[in-house]
Amino acid sequence: MKRWSVFSVWTSVALLMMSFAIGMAFVQEVDMVVHAATLTQASAVWTLTRSLNQGRFNRTAVLLNSGKVLVTGGQYQLRHAKAILLSELYDPNTGSWTASGNTNSAHINSTATLLANGKVLAVGGSLASAIAELYDPNTGTWSLTGNLVAGRAYHTATLLTNGKVLVAGGCYDVCGIYNMSSAELYIRQLGHGRPLAA
Known about the structure:
- By secondary structure, this protein is α+β, with helices and mostly antiparallel strands.
- It has one helix spanning 2-43, and strands at residues 60-63, 69-72, 75-77, 82-83, 86-91, 96-102, 111-114, 120-123, 132-136, 141-145, 156-159, 165-168, 183-187, 192-195.
- Strand 5 and strand 6 form a beta hairpin.
């Protein structure tokens, strides 16, 4: 009985010390999180600006050479994928939004890339669409350009140093099941996509 009692006492002491150590570690961890949050709040400030004319999600936004921001595509209703064709321009000098032409096709979960010539290339989206369009900031209009070789959504589009646009990955039909590993290049002079050689 005495050995068991001594063991119990030492066990209790050990558990108490472990609890104290864990408690101190938790306090230190919480303290670090609080400091991080405080520093984040102190180093950045958000202020409201004017709202879009049309609420939307799954859209794209591109900074133009003029300093304005082009927002295009997306949808305003999740069910039935209600697409938005209207594009809008944000002027940082006035904080206002203005309508700037409709796309020829829906672009939901698509990409928009600023090209070297100042135009914007909108690619795919909308249940794996293969349609691509060009936005001209001088006229505020959209025009169709060559289709993708393979329609896709949730892909990436990257402007390369040679002026071509690399479109890669994404999905078609049911995303998460029909994922794509293919990639293709948009060649501006030709106005359409070309499969990327393996």
